[in-house]
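Colleagues,

Please find the record for the two-part complex below.
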Amino acid sequence: MGYEPLVNQNPLRVLNLGRGSKQLGLVMARAGLGKTALLVQIALDSILRGNRVIHVSIGESIEKTKTWYDDILQFILQEHSITRPHELIEMVAQHRMIMTFKEDTFSRPRLEERLNDMILQDIFKPNCLVVDGFDFESSDRSTVEDIKEFLESMNLQAWFSATSHRGDDRVSPTGVPAPCHEVDDLFDTVILLRPEQDATIQLEIIRNNGSIPDSGAALNLDPSTMMVKEG
Amino acid sequence: MKQNLDQVRNIGISAHIDSGKTTLTERILYYTQRIHAIHEVRGKDGVGATMDSMELEKERGITIQSAATFCTWKDHDINIIDTPGHVDFTVEVERALRVLDGAILILCSVGGVQSQSITVDRQMTRYNVPRIAFINKCDRTGANPYRVAQQLRDKLNLNAVMIQIPIGLESDLQGVVDLVTMKAVYFEGEQGDDLRYDEIPAELKDEAEEKREELLDAVSMFSDELMEVMLEEQEIPEEMIHAAIRKGTLSLELAPVMIGSAYKNKGVQSLLDAVNMYLPCPTDVENIALDLDNDEAEVVVSNNPEDDLVALAFKLEDGRYGQLTYIRTYQGVIKKGESIINTRTGKKIKVGRLVRLHADEMEEIDEAGSGDIVALFGVDCASGDTFCSKNINWSMSSMHVPAPVISLAIKPVDNKAQVNMSKALNRFTKEDPTFKTFVDHETNETIVSGMGELHLEVYIERMKREYGAEVEIGAPQVAYRETITRRADFNYTHKKQTGGSGQFGRVGGYMEPLADEEYEFVDEIVGGVIPREYIPSCDKGFQASMKKGTLIGAAITGVRMVINDGSFHAVDSSDMAFQQASKGAFREGYAKAGPVIMEPIMKVAVEGPSEFQGAVMGSLNQRRGMIVGTFEEGNYTVVEAEMPLSEMFGYSTTLRSLTQGKAEFTMEFSTYKQVPKSVAEELVKAYQEQQKEA
């Protein structure tokens, strides 16, 4: 497709994205630090590698979710010279579908039904799912296990976001904060977004595709564009 | 005429079809004593509601044309523009929004925020129209105003705050609790004329307190004074709350939510109070005009009746007594007998009869002041023209007019119909800028084009009813376009030497794709290789070539033509020769520039029960649609997709049978996109066959 240079230059390569098709990832941060921006970049990376992505947005509108993609794509277009920007934009639109749910209507059976609607009719066959806004606080371990099992059965890579709270000090033995401190072992990759003194946001990779990463690869989010950078 | 502009309101009533807009307008006119009896939209008395002045609207029970009507409520002059509720008529809605200062957004308490409300609301946001939401039909089974208020927040991103709560719901709807005054309001008497204020019913006290807190929290953002009083826990004066709501509403950062049932005569008077209290008067809104004598520099109109006149003609109607032109004045005063100038044509016009309108009845007036909406008789102009007094030459900024996306051929059945048809078409094209008509010289057919199937259907229907012009219609045609995808050089010599004076011209240069614009001509000729006087000829020749592409004969767009070389002959070169050479050069370049066919893509939203989501998505997918996303709420789902217009003919029937009539869809033009190869091949083949036959 001609987007290999874009894919290879992406700092997210550190995360071994695309190695295992069933990879389950988690992005955690306090509100407003850039979880959605990171999820969108992960989704775009997948799309540029030729995959189809379903972006499940819980509690957000289609329009707003679309705007995230448009904005991040604009930053990518600004940073890299791409000969036919319209084709890239079009390609992304064709490889992405947005599903939005109200907070109280999202559940595994609903998701299963929707995905089946599309897959069986050959409308859209996703390889990757990003789920933004899943309520970990009121979901117990078995609910998350159930969803994980379903995603595995569908052979889908999936990324979740979760919001941690300042006042909540509970953490898992590996350092994953609440509300995911009791389910973090279900995820192959866990990333924490931490604000630094100099206003940058560090990506702390707690687990990288099942293994504890060496401390060499440091990534951060540029606070003005929310784009992942090395350094 | 009101000298005090604070007491003038120009409002629109916008809503989803069937949410009761016409009924509400009818009730407003009744309570403001402009009419003396209430008729229902689809009433048994066969009279129909007063605002639906066109026969067709009466029959279909929908409102198509926006008639302006005037009424007074508690010392305030209110001009109501009734706006259409169907998306195919959006230009009507948009034009109405242009002259409005504020609006009431009506929602059905059962249906809630439907896809059409989203479209209408988007338009209101575009024109910065402050609005009050009125949740109507609270007497209906399944009414839930709280859910609708939440939808206003979720789907329309409005900061919707309830300023009333209902007393009883569905068949038990008795009245409302006013959260500002903390009083219960009952609407009594046969027509709800008698308002009775009472204590809040005991069972609603807690809820009212809670909702009032929410209201105060929301509006305190707009008033430091109110915030202070709240912090000091003092008694809050009502006026202070009203002022804060008004401030929030005017800044478009707050949408007060009111409830009622127009049909059951509940809540309408309170809504009128709210119009007076919270919606802007003409001076609250900044309107911009363009100074035509000063390179279209933007100027803010003053609203001052002492200044020179600026008025916008926003609507034409062919009434019983001739052409009626609805105008809105932005500054100055328009007086009977005075001369004004149409700044588009430069023509001087004498103001003959000046009237104020109430749907079908009219009241003669002598003058109308700044901010007013009135109508002129017998003035020849087009919709969107600006009138000024002779000292200034301004134009109210142009309105957003989309290009037509669909067309069909019409043929009058007999001679009489032929004459009437041209009369009707002449009128409609003046009234509606998105409705266009022309004669195709190749087929000799009259073609009409517009924004959608229904849009054209309504005009054909009107032609028959109002003008007695019966026409046969052809199959609808999509307005395809052609464009180029890469740069290509050309170098073409036009030479003709067949006795007499010859023709000679050579044009060289290149063409390249041009994003977001139709055409650009760049002259890079140096050293006079093409003489100055023939440069416009080249431009002309290229433009003529743009009218018809070689693939399917559609208009070409998005091309930059650059000329940088050429040669001429002292005797044989002429305007004609260079036009011909340019046409040849265009043909030569076009063939090499990777021409493609573009088709209109519509933004479609299908809304219906979730159980049909799979079927709906399947049907969109089959029609070459690209599903953008789905939105699920309770048992309702909205599927948003981008669809080629050519695939949407007859979709309403398909959708109806797929979903047992429980789903509906809206469609608006989004953009032009390249058609897929297989479709392009078919189109080219069909075009070639058609050419052969001709």
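Chain B touches chain A at residues 154-155, 157, 515, 613-614, 617-618, 621, 626-634, 640, 642, 673 (CB under 8 Å).

Comments are welcome before we finalize the supplementary table.
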